[in-house]
Amino acid sequence: MLSLVKRLVKPYLVRAAHRRNERLRRELETAGRALGPQHWDAVVDDHGDLTLGGCRLQDLADRFGTPLHVVHEERLAANFRHFRDSFLARYPRVEVGFSYKTNPLPGALRILHRVGAIAEVISHFELWLALQLGVAPQNIVFNGPGKTVESLRLAVERGVRIINLDNADEADTIQRFAREYGRQQAVGVRVITSVGWAAQFGLPLHNGAALAAFQRIRQLDHLMPRGLHIHLGTGIKDVQVYARAVEELFDFAKLLKETHSIAIDFFDLGGGFGVPTVASYSPMDERLLNAGYPSRPIDIEDTPPLTVYASAIGELADRYFPGGTDSRPTLFFEPGRAVSSSAQLLLLRVLAIKPGPFGASNVILDGGHNLAIPTSYEYRHLLPIRNLQKSFTQKYNFFGPLCHPGDVLARACQLPPLQVGDVLAMMDAGAYFIPNQMNFSHTRPGAVIVCQGEVRLTRRAETFEHVVALDEGLSNGPVSHG
Ligand SMILES: Cc1ncc(COP(=O)(O)O)c(C=O)c1O
Known about the structure:
Blueprint: H1 2-30, E1 42-44, E2 50-52, E3 55-56, H2 57-64, E4 68-72, H3 73-88, E5 94-99, H4 106-114, E6 118-121, H5 124-132, E7 140-142, H6 149-158, E8 162-165, H7 169-180, E9 185-192, E10 203-204, H8 209-218, E11 223-229, H9 239-260, E12 266-268, E13 279-280, H10 283-290, H11 306-320, E14 330-333, H12 337-340, E15 344-355, E16 361-365, E17 378-379, E18 382-384, E19 394-399, E20 408-415, E21 423-426, E22 446-451, E23 454-459, H13 464-467
Parallel strand pairs: 4-22, 5-6, 5-14, 6-7, 7-8, 8-9, 9-10, 9-11, 11-12, 12-14, 16-19
Antiparallel strand pairs: 1-2, 2-3, 4-15, 13-17, 15-16, 15-21, 18-21, 19-20, 22-23
Helix pairs in contact: 3-11, 6-7, 9-11
The chain binds pyridoxal-5'-phosphate (PLP).
The site of pyridoxal-5'-phosphate (PLP) has 17 residues, from helix 12.
């Protein structure tokens, strides 16, 4: 009987497997196909050269050297405005910060503050940087799982807008400094909902830890409990994740109000919004990449527009907080990648080309995971900066210069023929590149800002001397071989 069932079912299983393989084969065939430069507001000029912000990228590489970060000022400002306006169109009290950790490049932060971004900081360094840039303390939101005592002192002394506690002990430290400086400090609590990141962050709603933190805060006379904070992850492309978490957050606020008379008027809904031209590698992609194949092609349609996130969240806000604008709470957002990712690229030069597997050539570039750590877990697009009018006929695997087999940037990319010395643009280098770059055998690059045909150097490239500037060893004379 069993063998009869098996015989009947087998052809269906074989056909289903065949269809699956066919789909995968078709996807792999289109992998590595170039996305058009228009996705990043880059323009191909009459000579087939790539320009950004009116500047020819080859000229920037010639003048400033490579590797080089290039920030597109207009795109950065436009991304920020687009984010804010998408939510403001749906709800009247919206404020938007920029997550400093995502791209702490002072020149780029300055652009964002000029168009109205609040500073979202999570460390003593980031708090210091915001103050150095002249951001008013009332425009600083202080989050983070590991706030040092010194950082809390500085935050309270200056009077930042709100400190979102990550653990209940922070309440006592803040109370101590608030009393010392004669201040009432607004505080919130980062909470963990049933969706999104939990890990070591914040306090869960489900086990009463978040509620207990508020009960503690209420006993401290220099603290004003005002806020609730979530941050659900990064590169999230599922609106339902936000809807679910925000609903739980609003329910908790209702409970605080009804049972503890605590009125929350500042909902910090975090960052995490995905961008179309970046995608996390799935376990399947990772298996493909490890076996030397390209990952599956990126689907730029799978990222909902910000207006869709805005309408899901706005609908909840309308339901929970009806009434006039003045009586409604503030919805605060602290995006990183949704604002900065697509507004910055990294120029990398071809150092060597040699034959590789499956008809592709292996190309070594002058920057790898030392500068572009996100390429180890997310797709980033590479564009040639010259010859864009030529056919994309060649297949290349790209590696960095590190002596490590894992220093892979991209596989099986279709590009016009390359030569040693050519420069490529790695797109979407504005999120988690700069904060993660390191001195692994190499120095760190400089950065320029381009805008309407003008270029300005905003960060000089590190020199060898910078790398060892804090060391003693070099001033002790030549080494002696013993
Ligand atoms: C607390 C917090 N807020 C905001 C962000 C920014 O996230 P994203 O770049 O995904 O928008 C992060 C990133 O990890 C974060 O940890």
